[in-house]
Structure formats: structure tokens, C-alpha cells
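tool_call: predict_structure(chain=1)
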Amino acid sequence: MSTAQTPGRLLSVLGVSFGIAGAVGGTIGAGILRTPGLVAAQLGSGPWVVAAWLAGGLYALLGANAVAELGASLPLAGGWYVYARRCFGDAAGFTVGWMDWVGHCTGIAWVAVTIGEYAAFLLPGLEPHGKLVGLAVLLLFTLIQLLGVEAGSGSQKLLSLAKAVAFLAVVAACFLLGGPDTRAAAAAAIPTDPAGLTPVGWTGLAVALVFSLQAIVTTYDGWHSPIYFSEEFSEPQDDLPRSLIGGVLAVIALYTLFNLALLRVLPLPVIAVSSLPVADAAALLFGAFGGQAITVLALLSLAGLINASIMGAPRILYGLSRDRLFSPLVDRVNRGGTPTVALVLTSLASALLVLGGDFTVLLGLAAFLYVSLYLVGIVCLFVLRLREPERPRPYRAWGHPWSTAIVLLGSVAFLVGALRNDTANSGWALLLIGVSVPLFQATRALTPAEAP
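tool_result:
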């Protein structure tokens, strides 16, 4: 019986088109609508703003280059924990998987609540029921995933395509309709202080770049989404590297065009004081209709993000369960190729976070957790290159060790900066990592050993 017909196992039916859609859908969310204002406020110069976005994209691209080697040589479901377990053993693998799954559930809950808030902008009658809208969205995408991996793949491709077309439409409108007149109108309508935007000296510029890159790296987060489906690509040795690198390149292009488009319509000081600069640009170009158009853009971005997250997170629990690091009941897979028990657990945990309402601490530490995962992956590449030089590597990271070292140093610098500037959330992140130790011991005690 062919793999695609065998019930109870993941199906190797995905291709590059899904991988790129997953990377784009898992990366582009509401963050890109807000982050340009934060970056502009820090740097105060259009060329520096564009350079910072390109630098953040380069960091993600070098990360994708490194992880492509890991994924192609270890094409197993589960994401980062697969590499940590291979290098450092079961306990480290469980800790990384736990961090990753909690981060996913937190992100899913935040997206669900945010969708409820944006929906209330379009339909004001929904405002008192924002959480119910979020839960309904969560249920909808859970049901789509229960249909099987092909339904999840198809929905991701459709949502990512719609998202890309919508962003490109905004970019085209800004370039066609924007110019000196719109910049002058914005400058006259919105009070600014251009002199206060320029960093003082090279030291001030360096500090501004660090803060900007922290925000930008968070906005690029999600580029690694294809690794959770390594086992489900029909040809992982080729499909996974192409998905990772192609997805990052697509996001870099969209983000760069988006920032250039904003600069075409708005002067930099106006972008710097705006919490949602694209809305200001849309208001200048389209009047009252602009706010609704940007709300639709945000909803498309969030829909693709929640679909990718709900599809990827169960693969983490599935992999942990199959490797006997979690309850063996969780590796159940339906005929359509969906890990059903893992999906239900993920959706329930996310729903509880939605109902709990205050998951701001978890959301605040998510960036710390995700960069920690990047760091683990990069360290694993160095370790496996030294420990297993004869392992087949269908894709080898170009520029290694220098290209990989850049990501390593960048990740370390990001975490050091987070520990110094966001001590509270970083402390909560470290506590969450520490909780994984007794959890691992408990699951190991309750999980039967694999038969010899």
C-alpha cells in the first residue's frame, strides 16, 4: 500500500509550493503593519531603515541556509527538537520541543484574539464578543486541519497567495498614487519633530540599530515553518531547502517593497510617530475606505499565520510522542495524515489562553524563546558537522562555518540584549525552560519504554 493510502502515519505529499506558502504564511502577520514605525523612530533615516530591514532579512536567510542542511539530513517531523535530541539527548530534545510548542500555542491564542479585535472594527456589533470570534476562528482552522494534510496545505497556499497579492496591491497603490504631494499633506496633518529622530553619534546609531534589529528579527520570525513538515515533503532533500530559502527571499522582497512604498507616501517623521503607518498611508490615498482596506489586509495576514501555526504545532507533539518523550497516545494520525490527538491538545491549550485573557507575559517572552531555538539549531549544525562528518547531507549550508557563525553571534547578541533590556520577560522565559525538567521526568516515568 502506498504511503498516501496508509492510515495512521504522516503522508509524504507536500511540495515546494506548500513549503514557500508555509514560510510566507508563518512569517507575515500583523507585525509588519506596526514595526516600520518603531524602526523609523529609532533610526531617523530612510536609507538606514531600508538597510536595517535588509540586514534582518540577511539574518533570516543565513538561518534558513543553516537549517536547510539540518532538515535535509534529518527529515523528521517535529522541528527544532529533532536536532537538539540528535545532538544532546532526550532531555534536551524534550526541553526544546516544550519551548517550541508553548511558543506556538501562545502565538495561536494571540492571533485568534487579534482577529476578533480586527473583525470588530469591520463589524462593530462584534466588539463585546471578541473572544468568541477568536474561539470560532480557532475552531474553524482546527476543523480544516482535521480534514487532512492536503486540506491544510491547500488552505495555506490559498491564504498565502491572497496575502501576497493584497500586500503587492498596497505597494502598487503607494508607488502609483504616492509622491511629494502625499508626503507634504501628511507632514502638514501630523505634527512631528524631525530633529529628535536622528541618533546622536556612531554610538547612538549603533544602539538604535540594535533596538531596530530586535524588532525586525521578531517580524521575520516564522521563516523556519517548513521544518515542521520535513517528513511530509515528497522529496525533502530538495523540497525543504528550496522552501526555506525561497520563502525567506519572498518575505525579504515583500518587506523591502512595503517599507519603500511607505516612504513613497509618508515622510519618515510621520512614519516614526505612527503606531500603524500603513493605515495613515491608506487614509491619504483612499480616504475613509483606507482603514477598512488595511483591516482586511491585517485579517488576511493573521488568517495565514494562524493556519500555519495550527498546522505546525501538532507535529511537535507528534514527534515527541513517536520518540517516546511524550504519551504514546499523542502519535495517533488519521487517514488524512493529521496528528489528531496532538491537534486537539494544541487547540485546547490555545483556547484556554484565549479565555484566560492575560497571556501578555507569554507573548512577551516568545521572541526570547524563538531566538533561543535558532541558537540551538545553529549549535546543532556545528556539533553534527564535527561529530558525524560522514552523515549524508543532500544540502550543505553555503559559507559554513562563517555564514553560520554570523547567525550564531547575532542570536547570542539578541539574547544578551534581551536579558539586559527586558529582564522580566527573559526571566520568565528561563523559568519556563526550567519547568521542562520536572515535566520531562514525569513524562519519562509515565511513558512506556519502546519495545526492543
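agent: The chain has a mean pLDDT of 87. Proceeding to next step.
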